[in-house]
Amino acid sequence: MHKLLIANRGEIACRIIRTARAMGIATVAVHSDADGTAPHVRLADEAIAIGPAPARDSYLVAEKIIAAARATGADAIHPGYGFLSENADFADAVRGAGLIFVGPSGEAIRVMGLKDTAKAKMKGAGVPITPGYQGADQSLPRLERAAAMVGYPLLIKAVAGGGGKGMRAVQGKAEFTEALLSAKREAQASFGNDHVLLEKLITRPRHVEVQIFGDRHGNVVHLFERDCSLQRRHQKVLEEAPAPGLSDRLRETLGIAAVTAGMAIAYEGAGTIEFILDCDDLDEAGDPKFYFMEMNTRLQVEHPVTELITGQDLVEWQLRIARGEMLPLSQTGLEASDHAVEARLYAENPDTGFLPAIGKLQTLRFPTGPGIRIDAGVEEGGEVTPFYDPMIAKVIGHGPTRAAAIDNLVAALDATIVEGVTTNRGFLARLADHADFRAGDIDTGFIGRHLDGLLARPEPDERLVAIAAALLAAETSPGAGPFARHAGFRLNLPRRAFADLFTVDGGRIHTIAETTGEGWTIHGQTTAHHVIIRARAGNRVDALVDGQPLGAIVLLHPGHIEIRLAGVTHRFNRTAPRKAAAGPADGCILAPMPGRVLSLHVAAGDRVQAGDRLLVLEAMKMEHRLTAPFDGTVAALTASVNAQVSEGTLLITIEKAA
């Protein structure tokens, strides 16, 4: 292998290029029209265009990828994850073209790529599988009978793909048909395959997966386990290694089961065996029973946490195995130590149901230092487009203990600055710092149970209000700034300044800032705090508040000041916030993001009740239902099925009932 083409984009392309360069392997980047100036294009030794922005016209066209390899003289292709990484036909086509495919055989991908065939294979190998239906008969009557046999609640799951697409939880018979049709539509749109399987819904599951590697010499090892239980809509949000709270016996059993799975298919390369643990059903030793869920025949998004606890470069392992080498280490040579936790930083808005966001990254800054790793594929000034996954970066905390790793992750999220695009940064920080997460009390329903609290705006912290007032007072010169309406000079008395800060929802915080020998005394409504700003380095402020040290991240803007501390963000406006623009309360239903109108469920003149479904919008291959905000009548319908709409487009107008 002398030249490697990376059939991907974003942070995983950058990640692969860095390891290849360290190994002395030349690299080729491919890019769509939307990615011509992307970081992975500049980082590679050479780059080649492969088509228009939509992935179906570029990154998903196998012929273009192989042609690009031939044109550049590349002798190997790394698929990354997503796109063509689990496409068996692509793997076969690469090898058929005389090139090295950095991944498993097409046969292994086929067997494990469909959940029904994978479960059958695992059952034959003695790996436990979840009770359910994995049959080929996909007719509605057969699936209805199968659902009755499995019993409710149950889970409908697309046999192809992953990421929660084509997956629906069904609580009872009455909702089965609608959920089935919706899952099939989404599966067809995402994977070109609408087949589903049914399985028992485990009501308090944990998602634990095991990283494995196999070589062409018949060796398979595991690199320990990860916990990916913190999910939203079946998509991972936080991942960590090792999984907290498992007995040594269960860890060993999971590792043996994962290696058994890899041996059963003569697996070659990096793969992940995913298990579901039933927290409500324990075995005789008191451990949760576990079942094989699926296998990802590629490198995982969350592979950095495994790298951090093992000290191994998993991309290097992939490249060495693809060259025909034996595994770098045997099972007895592998050790795990320390702890790592990863958060997926996305361009999305938690306050609007986590709808994806697009736009220009006007400011993008990440922290550096011990215990922090950032894997990013975008940069300041770049664009988050509607064409691809809206991930900005993976932020990883690492430390000798789980508590230390979480502390480092929360601090890293606090210090991450993204402007121009709405992100889930604050949500991730609150999630990682949640007391129950820190205690290891986790399952896949964690986010849903705690969502209201995770989205709630915290009450202003008096210490942070004091720091905000002190910083504003310190930067204000006489005759300018927020304190200008009151003179600061008083004969033989400390200089005094007044300010009205406002919370995001309009609450007024009146303060008086008074100079002292050192720093400021900040008088609030009923309390006073003495603040000394000891040091400022970039956005980091170290202060003494009433003699107690307090370090925070501070962002000063013309209109507001933002202070982040221990995962909590407080924003104070310098002027009273303007009245929010009219929204659904006025009956105007707007497109929350760019997308395609998948289906309409009302017509002009229809009467609707609050919560009734109006239409379904498809964006980034996910279905988003828009519902009526109140009882009323559909006064106007400007949307049409299959229409492409931009963010903010008026779709439906509802006249409120009298």
UniProtKB/TrEMBL annotation:
Q: Do you know which CDD domains this protein is assigned to?
A: biotinyl_domain
Q: According to the entry, what is the taxonomic lineage of the organism?
A: Bacteria, Pseudomonadati, Pseudomonadota, Alphaproteobacteria, Sphingomonadales
Ligase among keywords: yes
What is the name of this protein? Methylcrotonoyl-CoA carboxylase
Outline the extent of the Biotin carboxylation domain: 1-452
- Which Gene3D superfamilies does the protein's record reference? 2.40.50.100, 3.30.700.40, ATP-grasp fold, B domain
Keyword Ligase carried by entry:
yes
* InterPro entries with a match to the protein in the record: ATP-grasp, BC-like_N, Biotin_BS, Biotin_carboxylase_complex, Biotin_carboxylation_dom, Biotin_COase_C, Biotin_lipoyl, CPAse_ATP-bd
Q: Give a single Pfam family match.
A: Biotin_carb_C
- The segment(s) forming the ATP-grasp domain are 119-323
